[in-house]
Amino acid sequence: MKNARGAVIYVGKAAVLRNRLRSYFGSPAGLDRKTRRMVSELADYEYIVTDTEAEALILENTLIKRHRPYFNVRLKDDKTYPYLKVDLAEEFPRVYITRGVHQDGARYFGPFASAGSVRQSMDLVKKLFPYRSCTKKITGTDPRPCLEYYINRCVGPCAGLASREEYADVVQHVILFLEGNTELVTGQLRGKMAEAADQLEFERAAALRDQVAAIQKFEEERTVKVDSPRMTDLDVIALAMAANETWVEIFFVRRGKLIGRDHFFMDGPQDDEPGEVIAQFVQQFYATALEVPPTILVQHDPPDGFLRQRRNGAVRIMRPQRGENRKLMQVVAENAAEGLAQHRVKWLNRSDAIQGALAELEEELSLPALPRRMECYDISHIQGSNLVGSMVVFDSGKPLSRDYRRFKIKAVEGVDDYASMKEMLTRRFKRLVSAWGVIPDLVIIDGGKGHLSAAQEVMLHLGLQHIPLCSLAKENEELFVPHTPESIVLPRDSQALYLMQRIRDEAHRFAISFHRNLRSKGSLKSPIDMVTGIGPKRKRMLLRRFGSLQGIREASIEDIATVPGLTRSLAVRLKQTI
């Protein structure tokens, strides 16, 4: 699909083209927000006929990479991803990084998300297995080996210290390890260790013993929480979504053990459902993956026809509901959420990004100065119970946790976010200078126009209308400012929007944590606590005398009144309450 300028805005596939196009031009009420926006920009389209669905999927993936259409979800920076290559065509094979996969008899492992992750894997393999890392021609006639031989990082074929067959065993162990078959590797190494000991080659036996111990240690670390006799070969995929990017976490489990993990960023419209993002990731990732396991666990079910043809066999895609698979999915989902949070924290530590975001906010919101100190307010409740508010503070784009505040809403009954916001802001700003000693450069309200109006009313009443004010509505990530009816929509890749979302999410997290604490305390309260005049000391004396709450219920008013510190009127109120 193309817009009026001829730019490709969407690439899709269809078994029946007529039906697919018809679905875009029905009643707008039946279309999601993303599709309505896309259709509004559509000016022309073209189509390509393929012989099979697999060909259509491969072509779709290729065109998405080439044109990077705005309305397609896609792997961020979807360049050619790196692989580990074991070049078996060489007499003494090396292990190195490559970005191309060819039918040349070599073994490839990957793809990896970045050069950093592939180098990390290669460093690990190099520590565990003594293959050569040099590029020189191996003749076996060098007068002495390099330093790697003396630190047990190479078997020294260059100096004739290892035959071609012995070196081939090392390379075979590397391949087995990368495939996840560590039991076979350690078994073979133990056999060689025993053989070396029998031949009184104790130094060689000790080196093999250390190698086995290192592999076992690594195996113990990577089998935490995922080892299960029912697990064979599977991939586990979960995601964490923000407004303008998505972190996809993938765990690779082979023979019941976690042999690796990686993460990818997905870029695309913020209106996409999680299931669609998962489906696009599965399609694009496995288009270049060297292996498709028989089982893939996902949070949402994507179509699996493409995978079936890629694997030349059945692929079972599951959204686990219970048991070990469900626990494993929760682990991967937690890693995805933590990864996205850490990514945002790293972004906030980049001073150039922060300065750019602050300058952009100053321009877009027409602020009188750079918003160094920003305060964000949020309300949390469940069906009107335990109404709480939170205030978080960011100074120069970074959280200032010592200035965070929590507010327990006292004067509002039922569900009334606007009244709750008014109470919180009034308590915060009525003693602005005397109690707080600092004036914010920007006040951010978590909500839409209604929340902004409530906040504006408080500021006008307190004579603080000079303090810049805005609200951020989560549904469409729109900004609202006073005296401007239209919303301000920042670009999806805007650094200012990124910072605003981070502040809003932190306020929400802080409010939710306070709300949960109050609910937890409330669930532990006794009916005795509801009686005015009975504190912790009298409560202990009552329970010591009657043993339990049921014992107090069964006691007479006269018996209760004999407890030290209690009067008859208190005893009557207690019996009426419990």
From TrEMBL:
GO terms for biological process: nucleotide-excision repair. It comes from the Eukaryota. Residues 183-218 form the UVR domain. CDD domains: GIY-YIG_UvrC_Cho. GO terms for molecular function: excinuclease ABC activity. Gene3D superfamilies: 5' to 3' exonuclease, C-terminal subdomain (1.10.150.20), GIY-YIG endonuclease (3.40.1440.10), UVR domain (4.10.860.10), UvrC, RNAse H endonuclease domain (3.30.420.340). SUPFAM superfamilies: C-terminal UvrC-binding domain of UvrB, GIY-YIG endonuclease, RuvA domain 2-like. InterPro entries: GIY-YIG_endonuc, GIY-YIG_endonuc_sf, GIY-YIG_UvrC_Cho, RuvA_2-like, UVR_dom, UVR_dom_sf, UvrABC_protein_C, UvrC. Keywords: Cytoplasm, DNA damage, DNA excision, DNA repair, Excision nuclease, SOS response. Residues 1-73 form the GIY-YIG domain. GO terms for cellular component: excinuclease repair complex. The keyword DNA repair applies. It holds the Pfam family HHH_5. Residues 236-459 form the UvrC family homology region profile domain. HAMAP family: UvrC. This is UvrABC system protein C. It comes from Geodia barretti.
